[in-house]
Amino acid sequence: NAGVTQTPKFRVLKTGQSMTLLCAQDMNHEYMYWYRQDPGMGLRLIHYSVGEGTTAKGEVPDGYNVSRLKKQNFLLGLESAAPSQTSVYFCASSYSKAARTDTQYFGPGTRLTVL
Amino acid sequence: AQSVTQLDSHVSVSEGTPVLLRCNYSSSYSPSLFWYVQHPNKGLQLLLKYTSAATLVKGINGFEAEFKKSETSFHLTKPSAHMSDAAEYFCVVRTTGANNLFFGTGTRLTVIP
Asked: A7, A87, B18, B108: most buried by Cβ count inside 10 Å?
């Protein structure tokens, strides 16, 4: 049981390049989330998904797209990377949003640098 | 509206002394409250969670937190700090039924030998 995994762990991009971050979970969770973490700030929600085939915007969605084609995977895409997207990206998943089962489990993070 | 305020950006304690990390929250409805810990270059690990059951919540590694509705606080405590407790701690709130977690800005705990 690996929990939540993220690929890659590190990446350096040039401005304008595109890339996709992969998140995978093996806990059969319905809900999945992408956050970014910047110095001096807590995590901020980018996009989330409440089930296979569904996605929704979070607090800071601009410049990102997501897809949830399979229940266990949640992809985060940057179509044209900008230096402002330099950050550490965390994926998380939860069973539901009901109070008893809404604990989010986090992946180890992806450190992205955009030059 | 939901928000979290962590009152100290940095706390420094000596090994073996008590730890207090302060958190105040704002939530329109009944909240779920969490404390997560992040060790350097690692992901976030859940320490403990409050979901309207007992107001005193016990977590892993000897940490506990008390939910005080009248003070809108959820402070994290530990009786005796260990070197391995040095990390960043995040207080997090979620209103029941909402999708988002709202994170505080974090408190960095330093433990002095």
From this structure: A87
Q: Which helix (H) or strand (E) holds A21?
A: strand A19-25
**Paired tokens of A101:** 């089962």
DSSP for A40-81? TS-EEEEEEESSTT--EE-SS-TT-EEE-SSTTEEEEEESS-
**Beta strands A105-106; B107-112: pairing state:** unpaired
Q: Give the CA distances from residue B100 to residues A28, B23, B32, B58, B75, in Å, rounded to whole numbers and listed in that order.
A: 20, 18, 11, 24, 21
Mutate to test the interface with A, among B4, B89, B101 (most CBs of A within 10 A): B101
Whether residue A8 has a cis bond before it, omega within 30° of 0: yes
State pLDDT tens for residues A12-70.
999 999 999 999 999 999 999 999 999 888 899 999 999 999 999 998 999 999 999 99
